[in-house]
Amino acid sequence: MQLSGQLSGKTAIVTGSNSGIGLGVAVELARQGADIVLNSFTDRAEDHALAERIGAEHGVKARYIKADMSVGEDCRALVRQAGGCDILVNNAGIQHVAPVEDFPVEKWNAILAINLSSAFHTTAAALPGMRERGWGRIVNIASAHGLTASPFKSAYIAAKHGVVGLTKTVALETAGQGITANAICPGYVLTPLVEAQIPDQMKVHDMDRETVIREVMLLRQPSRQFATVEEIGGTAAFLCSPAAAQITGTTISVDGGWTAL
Ligand code: NAD
């Protein structure tokens, strides 16, 4: 399917997009012709340089706006500073692993704020402009953990289930208005964050790279293959395409079969 250029004239905000999945989604939307707003909580020269590079490579406007997604007012200010958006990708997220009775309260609060509440704030700020223009695409990056659970990830799983619920509610509130809201639920995706865990896992389990990936990290992913940031980007672009105009309030799993088990 040839999709190139179909998003020209649209502006996309991607939260948490100076690395990993957010960056992959931003690059794919730029490839489709969308102007891009990259975001994270840092304000380094390299963050702005990344936006410049994406703009130059794809012939679109691209800029970087610093905003801390753990702070509600920052989330809303991001949308205001961007001048609104046609496409909103809520991607920023963090993780912490601990049994529920030992789960540090500040980690619980941070995960709920960054992984869930930020999507509420950005969506609330972006919707009026989308309604005025009669077109909008909200793509929330949830997780296989938005649909299933694993031990020791209480905050992450509560937040990701919350994102799925928020997605459905926003879809109902915008139905028939040219706006859709959907959640992508990735399984394990090979991002720099995940890549960095491989050497430690190799040591702990005394296994080579391929074995630790197959037998430890991807134990619950039946394909035994990572999803890629390009695949998540492609799924987000599909949700923004004309073919997806009636897809709203749903989840799309990109998880190698994890949630089919
Ligand atoms: P990552 O750490 O590479 O990316 C997270 C991004 O969020 C970074 O750009 C980071 O700077 C940003 N971020 C963190 N805290 C922030 C804050 N307070 N304000 C603004 N930005 C902030 O990780 P990733 O793997 O690319 O994860 C991206 C999203 O995908 C997350 O929501 C994660 O839960 C989800 N996800 C990842 C996987 C996976 O296997 N990698 C699987 C399922 C879902």
From TrEMBL:
EC number of this enzyme: 1.1.1.30
Gene Ontology MF annotations: 3-hydroxybutyrate dehydrogenase activity
Source species, domain of life: Bacteria
Keyword Phosphoprotein attached: no
UniProt keyword terms in alphabetical order: Oxidoreductase
Top EC class of this enzyme: oxidoreductase
InterPro entries noted in UniProt: 3-OHbutyrate_DH, NAD(P)-bd_dom_sf, SDR, SDR_fam
Family: Belongs to the short-chain dehydrogenases/reductases (SDR) family.
Protein name per the record: 3-hydroxybutyrate dehydrogenase
